[in-house]
Every structure is written in structure tokens, then in C-alpha cells.
Amino acid sequence: MTNLSKAITADQTASYQKALTDDPMAKVVERAVSHQGILATAADYASAADMTPVFSIDLDTGKVANQKQSGRCWMFAALNTMRHHLADLFKLSDFELSQNYTYFWDKFEKANYFYENVLATADQPTSSRKVAFLMTTPQQDGGQWDMLCAIIEKYGIVPKSVMPETYNSSKSSELNSTLNLKLRKDAVVLRKLVADNASEDDIAAAKDKMLKEDYRLLAYTLGEPVSEFDFEYRDDDKNYHIDKGLTPKTFFDKYVGWDLSDYVSIINAPTADKPYNHTYTIEMLGNVVGGRAVKHLNVSMDDFKALAIKQLKAGQSVWFGCDVGQSSERQKGIMDTNYYHKDDLFNIDFDMSKAEKLDYGESLMTHAMVLTGVDLVDGKPTKWKVENSWGDKVGTKGYFVMSDAWMDKYCYQVVVNKEFLPADLRSIQETEEPTVLAPWDPMGALA
What we know:
Belongs to the peptidase C1 family. This is Aminopeptidase. Keywords: Aminopeptidase, Hydrolase, Protease, Thiol protease. Its main location: cytoplasm. The protein is of the alpha+beta class. It folds into 2 domains: 43-66 and 259-343 and 352-446, Cysteine proteinases (Cathepsin B, Chain A); 97-258, Cysteine proteinases (Cathepsin B, Chain A, Alpha-Beta Complex). Helices cover 43% and strands 16% of the residues. It is built from 17 helices and 14 strands. Strands 1, 4, 5, 6, 7, 8, 9, 10, 11, 12, 13 and 14 form a 12-stranded mixed sheet that branches. Strands 2-3 form a two-stranded antiparallel ribbon. Helix 6 packs parallel to helix 10 (173-195). The chain is globular and about 75 Å long. The chain starts with 9 loop residues before the first helix and ends in a 10-residue tail after the last strand.
């Protein structure tokens, strides 16, 4: 094989320098970028005019929530879709479900899920890719729609008033570093037990002790979840209500009442290894052992958007996952591929296809939000209304505008009711055994 390794020569460097010297605009661009930064210099503020927050379909979903300094966007977004439904039924416009309650149980179940994966890979060296993957982040704040469904199906939900936020739920870095330290230490113990041929009873006893400690750690930092409570509130008409003796599961059944199996994950991943109109799951991705598994139906972008529009037209908001940091202006609340023009600024072609971005690590799902509107012109979407969970100081009182081109490029997942799927796609989603993807596949990214 020909040796392709070649050092940069002095002649090459000299030619690059001359090319820059000969460019009359080079110093102008250098001064602008070096003083203002890349994004400010590349910004095209005309994009803001195109992203005016006016939509032909616009759901009124009230005030936005605030996940603060935590990575619970997927959880906030999912609970927001349920809150929207509950608020309409019971006239509770300023109501929130407890994100801390589901957070507690997610952390607890993730610890057990981690232990099971440690035991399943205990015969592999710590240098194996799977073990290294597990130990890189034993657990984190992020998750996916199916994972929250697994928590709710097992533990239910409660109003935020019943289990409010704590310092650690709103600012989770200390909790995460402490819990991950413990989980890695526990992994050492479990792997050693397996290596020493310990009995199943001894391993189970060790794991039970670990889970007891995990529960205590979480109770001290997040508060202990309630098992029974009274729900007391005034509705938007100022009428007083009290509902006594509820459990988290009876509260969900009565006040949300969804059959969560009706809501399914639809993805758009146009990579060669994931043909459209097939289902996929990801190895070692989940939280509740024995609970609902992650399952994605991969479809074309046209089908992806059509399903979201159907649900919005029916008056239901849509959970979605995307790569929020790409071509996104946080303060203005604009997500638009035309907002930044780095290619013009540097005279470099930065364009990559969506599939290339996924395959080469340039993009993956990093954030979940809620679609609450869309602007249809001649039946085609031009921009989308997005409810974020970063508080009301960004965007338009916390709401963002997303161009349709941005959705094409950086949206990867929506959750829709199966009733909106065409018969052929519904049959595939319900009956096909999903292809198992590697743990590090980008479709396993946690929002």
C-alpha cells in the first residue's frame, strides 16, 4: 500500500500565505471575526424577518417551563404534552406536572439498568468498547420518549405541587457526578464478584445493598416520592377542587388518561444502515429493566412532517428531538439554516448531508422540545412553532421559531399517536421485530 503520510512543506505554507495576502478582503474579514467572533460575524439578521412567530395552526399551550441547569429536556417536553391535554380538560392553564418525581424514578431505575448491563458484560475486559461505553457515563439526565413512558407505566405521575423542584433537580451536576462515582465503584464490586465465581444469591445481595444506597442518595438530594396525596386546586374559572387519596398511577389514569402504547417514536435517519419503513432499537439503551423498550420507526422526511402536521391539526402538541445547537440563535429563539453563513464568511464549503452528519459525528439528537404550531402556505410547511423548556427569557416568551429547512436538516424524532399512521406504516410499527443497533448509534443519543 502506498504511504500517504506527507508532512506540510515550507513551499505549501508560503503559497497559502501568499493567497491570503493577495486577497484584498482578507484583513477586513480577519478584523471582524477576531473582534466579534465567528457567529456574530456570520449572522444574517434578515432571517429574523422570515421567522416571524405567526402560524396558520397555533395551539395555545400557556406558559413555558424551565428545566434550569439540568438535562431533563426530554422529560419536560413529554410532560408538557401531557400537561397541555390535562390543562384543556380541567381548565388548568398555569399547571405543571412534577418533573422531579419522574426524575427520581428515572435515576433510580437507570442505576439498576446500569448494574444489569455491568453483569451482562462482566466477562469482557474493561478495554472492550461496550464496557468502556458503559463506564464513560453510567447514567445521565438525558433520555428518550419510550424511557419516560416506562417510568410512568410503573410509577405514574404527580402534580408539581406534590413533589416540587429541589436544588439538585434544577442544578444536577453535583448529583450526577456523585451518583456516577458510586455506580463506577459498584461496577468494580460486581465485576469482581463475577470474576470470583460468586453465587447468584451473593451477587443479588450485593446489588440489593447498592440499590438501597442509591435510593437513600436520591431521597436526600431530590426528596422522597409520595405514594398517596390529595390534589387541591382552583381552575381558570376560580372554582375550587379537591381530590383526595390519589396515588401517582390513579392520578395519571384520571387526569391524563392516555394509553401510552398509542404514542410511538418516528425517526428520520437517512443513513445507509437504516432503510426507511423499518423499525430499530438500540442495545443497552433504556432505564426500566423489563419495562417499555425503545423502538423507532424510520420514515422519509415527507412522512415525518406529514405525521406531525396531522397531530397538530387534531389539536395535539408533538414531542420532538433535534440537534438544537446547529444554526440556532438562543436569545432570539430562531432555528434557521439561513441564520449563519459561515461558508460565505470563510469562503469554505461546509455543507454535509444529513446522513453524512450522522455517520461522521457532526450531528445527533441533543435536545427535545414540543411542536405547538406550524405555518402552512399552499399546504406546505414553511416554519414551525416550538415550545422550549428554557424559561420565558429567551425567544418569544420561551417559544422558538424553526424553519422548515432546519427541520429537514436537524430534526430526528417525533412522537405521534398511532391513529395518524397510514395502515402500512402502522402495521410495520406494531408487528416488525426491530433491528438492534449498536449502543453508540446516533439514534441512541439521549436528549
